[in-house]
Amino acid sequence: MSFVLTEDQEMLRDTAINFTRDELPVKHLRGLRDSGKNGVDPEGRQKLAELGFFGVLIPEEYDGVGMGMVALGQVMEAQGRTLASTPLLQTACIGASAILLGGSEAQKQEWLPKIASGEVTTALALDEGSHHNPAGVATEAERDGQGYTLNGAKKYVQDGHHADVFIVVARTFGEAGDKHGLTLFLVPRDANGVSVQTLNTVDSHGAAHLTLEDVHVPESHVLGAPDKGMDILEPVLDRGRIALAAEMLGSSRAAFEMTHEYLQTRKQFGQLIGSFQALQHRAAKMFTDLELTTSCVSAALSAVDEQRNDIAELASLAKAMAGETVHLVSNDTVQLHGGIGMTDEHEAGFYMKRARVQEALLGSASFHRDRFAQINGY
Amino acid sequence: MPYDAPSDLETFRQEVRDWLEENCPQSMRTPQPEDEVVWGGRREKFKNPDSKVWLERMAERGWTAPHWPKEYGGGGLDREQVKVLNQEMSRINARIPLHSFGLWMFGPALLEFGNEEQKKRFIPDIIHGRTRWCQGYSEPGAGSDLAGLQTKCEDKGDHYLINGQKVWTSYADQADWIFCLVRTDNTVKHEGISFILFDMASEGVETRPIKLISGSSPFCETFFNDVKVPKDQLVGEVNGGWKIAKRLLQFERSSISASGFGSARGSGMLELEEYAKIHVGTDSDGKLLDGDLRGRIADHQMYTKAFGLTVRRSQEQAKAGQEVGHTASIIKYAAAKMNQDKHELMIEALGTEGLGWEGEGFDKGAKMVTRGWLRSKGNSIEGGTSEINLNVVAKRVLGLRDHQ
Q1: How far, in whole angstroms, is CA B16 from its chain's centroid?
Q2: What positions belong to coiled-coil segments (chain B) (predicted)?
Q3: Distance between CA atoms of A87 and A83, rounded to whole angstroms?
Q4: Do B294 and A378 touch (CB under 8 A)?
Q5: Is B276 in Cβ contact with A378 (below 8 Å)?
Q6: CB neighbours of residue A122 within 10 Å
Q7: Does B12 touch chain A (CB under 8 A)?
Q8: Closest Cα partner for B174 from B119, B222, B111, B215?
Q9: How many Å apart are CA A332 and CA B182, to the nearest integer?
Q10: Residue of B nearest to A264 (CA)
């Protein structure tokens, strides 16, 4: 397990932090919101592609840069710092991983170069209720002559309002609740029978509900072995959870820095408010949680690159810790800023709104505590 | 016999393994009961005779203080070699040969601030467990505000004369010598403190054990009444003791953190989740029946895991030459919280089984949990209260200022 970055990873980190700071600051998200773009940002996507961020996990033979999860984590943390609305989590992490882990050689050749270049973005269409529940899929995939016919509905698909291809999880066997019997399908956005309901979400990133009505999917678009989708889905979700935890760490750090700065400039009673012990202790506790979360995220990222056997446990640890931390820090950011923190003009609210979405995506802290307990045998 | 460690790590590992195989007595590879812990010093009884053999053999190689310089009897090993030694010891479940405030706190500070004569005189006896040291820091009027201490030290020409009282002196009634903070100047606060060493058998020293809520008496009140101390036993400069005191506190806090306030292993106590399974019960999937308690246990164990990863991260970053003061500063605070939460949850998981004090009718391990729960309340007080630790983080790490 490594907690120290290599020189290449360090360079990528600097590039990513400078890029999001200069090109995708919170002000940029505010602009997208105020102009009704709902988090959709084709120019931003183009710049991410030019920097090679879509191909961080993709090996060089498929036109990526093959730098691994620790490297991707640095990019995710950087985007978390400025709350940037990008397709990286869904495409560079989840989409690329699903094809890398589950795809045939032909599928890898077809899709990975397109993902690496930024030509194609993907979105995982998994959950059907309002809570993360991978085994709860009821969407049906029925065999027809040349493939499958899909029927069902997916809720709150991240990036669903703009992704080019959906990775749909559907049931080819058994009932909702069974881990066995799931299959992954690549479904282009423009396939017949796919309807997308765009959602305006609290974090201004947007999302979509999907309805699948007699959507035909050819055999060539089945990802991995039928019925055994969970074998791919679990490791893919864990990578997504870890990458999202890195993003959340970035958001937490940035919100904390903003608050820390405010404590050292705002005066009341003729004193800097940061000289009041009640606030000093809150800041010190937040700092403690940030340090603990940093360790969990680093450990989880490097566990993926080292192909360790405790990735699932570390993914749940990182996602739960990051969830608790981003929740605490974003709420305290509003509170410690006082009245100004309640205004739309200030950025504190953006962090709190995005935090709630990050907390819910790919399993809440409570989901991951339950999973952690199960993994540890109680 | 002096031992030169080979520079090649794998060769070293093999040599350590062979040596341990030959020299670590079989009974020293079993879990250590509380009453077989060796603290050394004049009063050490070595309840298990093997523990004397084991200590002597380890001390001869300097491996009770593996990273201390060889010239004073230490092992002279580098960080990687120490790691190998620790790994090989835990591979065979070897007991720690010597518990000692000398090794954990006083020795490192003396190596940094003592003069040559003092190091030669005191360090070898620490390594061999011949002298047991205690720490004279807190006073009735100087706890969190340690620098407010008043124990008086007067220069009488050919000796110093000490009068005053210390409190919370760990194992003062068992110790041979004390390292002690004393006031050598009344007109200033921090700059009037000196760091001095003396024999607890000196005339005028009296100790009285303090009984804690847990029933044990690990601490004493310690009284000094006209205690004469030779002048060569003052460490560093007169009035220059505060710097040494603070450095020593860092060693204390990191040694508290490294041991994480102890673990259940080997003491007859079970782990938290095992107690919960036994006393709360599980469903057919093996899940704890009390869902709320289960969630809180998971929360605590995640915190514990995060803590362990943070200690490792801090070590790795230090090894890579990175600044780790920021990370280290949170460790004592987090360790105290973690140990207290663990004991609270254990008591809760045990139910009425966790409410025994002594005698029959209660499991031995459970009674230790009860005592441990009470003792853990001190974790956020001793070695710097949690509130003081948060102050340190706020001021030194986050740079937040006092009222102007």
Answers
A1: 26
A2: none
A3: 12
A4: yes
A5: yes
A6: 25
A7: no
A8: B222
A9: 43
A10: B400
Which of A241, A288, A366, A374 to probe by mutation at the B interface, max B CB count within 10 Å?
A288
Which residues pair with residue A148 across a beta bridge?
A: A143, A217
CA–CA distance, A183 with B173 (Å, rounded to integer): 70
3-state SS, residue A98: helix
Task: Give the nearest partner residue to B390 out of A285, A294, A317, using CB atoms.
Answer: A285
Dihedral of CA B237/B238/B242/B246: which sign?
A: positive
Sign of CA dihedral B42, B48, B51, B56: positive
CA distance linking residue A221 with residue A217, whole number of Å: 6
* 3-state SS class at A231: helix
Residue pair B104/B64 in contact by the 8 Å Cβ criterion: no
Residues of B classed as catalytic: 252
What pTM did the predictor assign? 0.89
Contact between A305 and A68 (Cβ < 8 Å): yes
CB contact under 8 A, A280 and B277: no
- Pairwise CA distance, residues A170 & A345, whole Å: 43
Judge whether residue B265 has pLDDT over 60: no
Tell me the pLDDT tens digit for each residue of A48-102: 999 999 999 999 999 999 999 999 999 999 999 999 999 999 999 999 999 999 9
Single-letter amino acid, residue A144: D
Q: Go through chain A and tell me how many residues it has.
A: 378
Sign of CA dihedral A350, A351, A353, A358: positive
The answer to whether residues A75 and A53 touch, using CB atoms and an 8 Å cutoff, is yes
The interface pTM score, or ipTM, of the predicted complex is 0.94
The pLDDT value recorded for residue A14 is 98
Report all structural domains of chain B as residue ranges with CATH numbers, in order of start: 9-99 (no CATH), 133-244 (2.40.110.10), 260-397 (1.20.140.10)
Q: What is the CA radius of gyration of chain B?
A: 23
CB contact residues (below 8 A), chain B span 177-216, against chain A: none
Nearest CA-CA partner of B258 in B266, B250, B268: B250
**pLDDT tens, position by position, A190-209:** 999 999 999 999 999 999 99
With CB atoms and an 8 Å threshold, state whether A283 touches B400: yes
Asked if residue B37 lies in contact with residue B99, where contact means CB atoms within 8 angstroms, the answer is yes
Q: How far is B402 from chain A (nearest CA, A)?
A: 5
Say which amino acid occupies A208.
Answer: A
Q: Is B323 exposed, middle or buried (0-12, 13-18, 19+ CB in 10 A)?
A: exposed
Other C-beta atoms closer than 10 Å to the C-beta of A128 total 19
A324, closest residue in chain B (CA to CA): B299
Which residues, other chains included, contact A345 with Cβ-Cβ below 8 Å and sequence gap of 6+?
A: none
- Chain A residue numbers touching B273 (CB-CB < 8 A): 376-378
Q: Which residues pair with B221 in a beta bridge?
A: B167, B208
Rounded average pLDDT over A234-253? 98
Distance from the Cα of B270 to chain A's closest Cα (Å) equals 15
User: Is B363 in CB contact (< 8 Å) with chain A?
Assistant: no
Task: Catalogue all structural domains in chain A, each as residue range(s) with its CATH number.
Answer: 7-120 (1.10.540.10), 124-227 (2.40.110.10), 230-375 (1.20.140.10)
Indicate the residue of A275, A321, A376 with minimum beta-carbon distance to B403.
Answer: A275
DSSP H helix total and E strand total for chain A? 11, 10
Q: Please provide residue A264's backbone torsions phi and psi, each rounded to the nearest 5 degrees.
A: -100, 5
The predicted-structure confidence for B100-156, as pLDDT tens digits, reads as follows: 999 999 999 999 999 999 999 999 999 999 999 999 999 999 988 999 999 999 999
DSSP string, B159-174: EEEEEEEEEEEETTTT
* DSSP at A278: H
> In this complex, is the C-beta atom of A268 within 8 Å of any C-beta atom belonging to chain B?
no
Residue of B282, B327, B395 with shortest CB distance to A291: B327
| Residues in chain A closer than 8 A to B297 (CB atoms) | 373, 378
